């Protein structure tokens, strides 16, 4: 190596100071980011309202958005899920339901018409941004789906997740939790269905990419964090946390997670698909110019397959059934950035 | 199909109205998004300044950030690029240089110490968000890198891109442009090097994922767009654009694009790595608790390989040379969300 890095070497004490400064700065960035989310929410709220009114008049808007959704979400949408969306998905609403306190929390509210799969008219999945001393991220409570007889697309996983979540509500001891019959039932169900791809509706059973974190635990961890930061700001020495580290293994908790990666999928829906829904919808319509008559005559659900659609995938556009199969498909247009 | 969708069928006239409303609404969303970027920029500016001061005291901050960067960027970093970063990358600065007019434009400014590869102390790559009637997105001018003799990591691609860009400056005719010797030279170089992975520094040669769009063309397209939107708002009928569509094939322009996907890579740097740099830096240090003494003694450049590091990759952490190889690597910690 032509350069000698030894002049850059830092002592453990220097590193300690450096990491304290870094933590302080990081907390300021987190506050700023929260403020940005709040501002964005306020700026866009009236537009989302306007869009909801517009979309209500557009047939199949959200199923067509899901048809064009990013790969990371599409990977989780099974052929039957596409069928459900095409048949009965009527609305989607994303709200930051505790925007003042924690703007990173959000809810996905799906609205459905009468259908053959479940009796629910709305399914709302709330994601709370919560803290522990080692982690922060989104957690959620499993949502009961009232599946019609023989129609449960998750093979009992959502029901089992709801039951476990109820059963462990007042249990803080991890060993007792793992001894619950509901725990065994859910982990067995997950294990036996590991080879099959879980339905998108398994997302409603999602709990956490780490483990369940209650509002109380989160509030306490946040308070501790803020006390430590206040000390750092005041230039005080941080006291060591003498508590024994509990022998926690978050991997272990994933034994009962029906939908690993559910927080990421939900985040893409909330932060990409929700704000950019008009663009995803429009991507179905291949237009050369924005308001070209020739294109408008072709302004219909596009019948040609996307290049990366897998063969087994259900063609929502065919289900939506706009006809015009005889027409020459409009030429592909480069997707707008 | 149990449900009949025919009640949803829309006439071409209804669709036309629908798409006009959609375009109007979309333009409002674009304005709102621009406002959000401006607000975020203003909120975070003082923090970025504070971070720059902090980072100046942290050895190898940015090379360690690049070491931990998202897969979509990492894919473009070759072993020699990692070596360059570890040896001489001293700073990175992202600025929204025309935030009032077009907040989506940004610049990446890399600072380097004296090194064996090139004589430049800073390399600044500007990305302008521009419009045509069919497309909008980021375009950039190739940046000259003053490679030292025999040290050009791009095998002449950056030089050739700069030369072509200069040569075509006053040419508007595409056929004349394609007849330029500089055009043939660059497209030949790209074709013959197609099998080899291009250096990350090829990013400095990036022009566009579509084609080069000048400030003038963009201003004109934007003006037309706004005139049409104003008419839509006023409820007026949009006039047809009678201009013949020029026989443009953006694919064709990619013959002289040194770094396809460069706009996406730059966007990830600007919108993910830049705001979250402290987190990426911290990800090197595996800590169980934030301020734990035991961890602080291990607070050093982590020597264990990431699971997905490819075998050929240069280990920056080894280049950085913090030693301590004999130590037990700290246990992996779940990455913070």
UniProtKB/TrEMBL annotation, chains A, B:
This is BSD domain-containing protein. Belongs to the nucleosome assembly protein (NAP) family. It comes from the Eukaryota. PANTHER family: TESTIS-SPECIFIC Y-ENCODED PROTEIN. One of its GO terms (cellular component) is nucleus. The lineage of its organism: Eukaryota, Fungi, Dikarya, Ascomycota, Pezizomycotina. Signal peptide: none annotated. Residues 233-261, 293-337 are annotated as: Disordered. GO terms for biological process: nucleosome assembly. Residues 238-255, 293-313 have a biased composition (Acidic residues). It comes from Epicoccum nigrum.
